[in-house]
Design brief:
Order of helices and strands: HHHHHH
Shape: rod-shaped
Number of strands: 0
Strand content: under 5%
Number of helices: 6
Helix content: 55-70%
Number of domains: 2
Largest sheet: none
Distance between the termini: 91 Å
């Protein structure tokens, strides 16, 4: 009975890793191709950083290789590394410098930061009124009427 429970536990653990790996691969597939060199550098830096992180996880799994959890951890990390290397190859990351930065690793490429809304400048009429008031002896009302026509 104990041996059967251990086997079932191992199978469930491996099935969980397979599901996790599938979700990870799907996330990688969501990363759009780089649109320019700066975008390529950011994405490749993130990929390289992720590969380094997964290599650390793989080492931990290797150190725990005496149990099923360690083996599953190692296999999961190796699978993620393969998927990341494939994406790096797809993005031609070999053509980009090698140094990942913290800023590049901060936001995964499939999560786009919300763009900061630009504060609009003054409207054309506001600019006209300001120029009129600054350069003529007209009143604000006269400037408004002059700019509004």
């Amino acid at each position: 009975m104990g041996k059967a429970a251990l086997i079932w536990g191992g199978l469930l653990l491996l099935a969980g890793c397979a599901t996790q790996q599938q979700r990870y691969a799907e996330k990688l597939d969501q990363i759009p191709a780089p649109v320019d060199n700066a975008d390529r550098q950011q994405k490749c830096a993130w990929i390289r950083g992720e590969i380094a992180q997964q290599q650390k996880v793989e080492i931990v799994g290797r150190e725990q290789s005496s149990d099923l959890t360690g083996l599953a951890t190692q296999a999961n990390a190796q699978s993620k590394i393969a998927a990341l290397e494939s994406k790096a190859n797809e993005f031609n990351c070999n053509a980009v410098g090698e140094t990942p930065t913290q800023a590049a690793r901060a936001v995964p490429p499939w999560q786009r930061p919300v763009p900061v809304a630009e504060t609009p400048g003054p409207s054309k009429i506001e600019s006209c009124i300001a120029a009129c008031k600054a350069n003529t002896p007209r009143t604000p009302e006269q400037c408004f009427d002059a700019c509004n026509h």
